[in-house]
Amino acid sequence: xxxxxxxxxxxxxxxxxxxxxxxxxxxxxxxxxxxxxxxxxxxxxxxxxxxxxxxxxxxxxxxxxxxxxxxxxxxxxxxxxxxxxxxxxxxxxxxxxxxxxxxxxxxxxxxxxxxxxxxxxxxxxxxxxxxxxxxxxxxxxxxxxxxxxxxxxxxxxxxxxxxxxxxxxxxxxxxxxxxxxxxxxxxxxxxxxxxxxxxxxxxxxxxxxxx
Length: 211
Prior knowledge:
Layout: H1 23-37, H2 43-57, H3 60-71, H4 73-81, H5 83-89, E1 100-104, E2 109-114, H6 123-126, H7 131-134, H8 136-144, H9 146-152, E3 162-167, E4 173-177, H10 189-193, H11 198-202
Parallel strand pairs: 1-4, 2-3
């Protein structure tokens, strides 16, 4: 694996402002503006797509998959063997979600997802990718020093915990199945899904602890 030079700490996931866009986001905004001005793109259609992936498609879809895996051992086995088929059976397919692999956290083992080349991400399961996921800092540093990067997210793991970093590609994307929190025996899948966060399915966080 090629070792990169250390880069500055990751930016926090603040809302974008036009004067603080990274170069790629700025180019996308500029291109969208030109296409709208030429009448080639309907801004309402763009807003509808963003609204869909931000609030209707994910990350609640991924949370439903995780909750079902927690509740049904047979489904968890299927998800581990063939995540593409398992999530497809729940109706979650489409943009950047055609081929998926599920990796399961366990005592002493924690998984983290990154895309080192660009920002491949399972939109159909997790919705829009967070700003930090696309940042060069996260994409380079989490491969070299995952424990330090997780600590910056507030996730400090025991030294004995093994960390595995999975690199998403255009052909295959990953979903982390976090460990089920204690004290949730007898919970319905709907209740369990409320504990699953986007960060826990990327690996930069854990599932919520029941109140």
